[in-house]
Amino acid sequence: MLSNSLVELDRAHLIHPVASWRGHEAAGVRILSSGKGAVVRDATGRELIDGFAGLWCVNAGYGQESVVAAATEQMRDLCYATGYFGIGSDPAIRLAARLADHAPGDLNHVYFTLGGSDAVDSTVRFVRYYWHSRGKPQKDQFITLEYGYHGSSTVGAGLTALPAFHAGFGVPYDWQHKIPSPYPYRNPLGSDVEAMIAQSKAQLLAKIEELGGADRVAAFYAEPIQGSGGVIVPPKGWLKAMRDLCAKNDILFVADEVITAFGRTGPLFACSEEGIVPDMITTAKGLTSAYVPMGAVFMSEHVYQTIADGAGQAAVGHGYTYSAHPVSAAVGLAVLDLYEGSLLDNGRRMGDRLQAGLQSLSDHPLVGDVRGRGMLAAIELVTDKDKKTQLPAASLPATRIFERAWEAGLVARAFAWGVIGYAPPLCCTEAEIDAIVERTRIVLDQTL
Ligand code: PLP
Questions:
Q1: Per the count of CB atoms within 10 A, which of 113, 213, 307, 315 is most buried?
Q2: Which atom of ligand 1 is nearest to the CA of 115?
Q3: pTM of the model
Q4: Residue 413, SS3 per DSSP
Q5: Which residues form the signal peptide (predicted)?
Q6: Which residues pair with 178 in a beta bridge?
Q7: Of 254, 259, 269, which is best to mutate to test ligand 1, by the most ligand atoms within 8 angstroms of its C-beta?
């Protein structure tokens, strides 16, 4: 009864993000009521394994008491302190220091935001400020990757290359450019790592040339693994090659780790595993494990010092009311305790199990590709494995895969062109990982 009236209230009043508004009105909302570990419960009391950790964000799992306690205590002690006027709070300072300790290389300076989109936006502003400070304001062109996702703000949606984020909105801006994604499964050079890397380098150099040379290009952005584009894993060494090419051409390299950081691929930062130190890293999601909103920009020593010198005694005019919010920071500290405890190790072990389990689905007639790293994975469905024929969208809408998975007791992300994505909480048990794989096979069999 209560649930039915909520469905009607939702239909009448709540606008959902990235949804077909008409489709949602017809289908109605699925209401989640509670969660513990990797399991969520809907309003009817049905339990599902959350194979997507909400939106690749509840890395620590639901209902972690230490996180709840940290938030409660901080709200009671001091619910808010601005970062403006030289004011700060204990948890924000300690979180910045602890994160800087973990971040790759000299990414020693942390700027807190409310989530990933405004973290990306902040880097765009910092990149611009950096080049002004260096006396090169003409370096104002930005390059990103096809299949890339960098948020849904006006600027971030333009850096994003997914068509749904552009249609009807009139973005991207003319200073936002794309080069092809290193998509091994869909690239004829896919099995030749060296050739793929050489191809991407040539594509970046060609784009730089087209834009008038390196003296016009401000920054290149890449996700270490492209998440919302379909969990596209570049070949080993690709990220380092692109980072080095940017350094050689005096172009800033920004790694967007909003999904890949905080144990999602194994370590706290995917860049550490790749052996690279970007000029800036963006994060969000696992930073607070989604208990409260927060994002962060990690800034290298030279970017920080250049901007600081450029500004002199003037204010660097960028900030949000909720930058470095003390409750979010207290949650971040409690979540970091969990990562430093057993969570990262468990995530690594469960990640190996997930990847092996999904590989066991390769024999299924619909499975063309299985890919991922750690607790981030995808399977790509095709109608013809040799020709890699994508499923006709009309015969297999993503919503139908999502609905079948839900019926089977699994929350998994279905992408429009027939990719199923996985990002379970790092606290999963072996039995839960096995159930994710078993339930996926049920969905695939029903889809045949
Ligand atoms: N960048 C990447 C790589 C993302 O995956 C996302 C969100 O999924 C964002 C930025 C935007 O983050 P948010 O949704 O917190 O604004």
A1: 113
A2: 15
A3: 0.97
A4: strand
A5: none
A6: 144
A7: 259
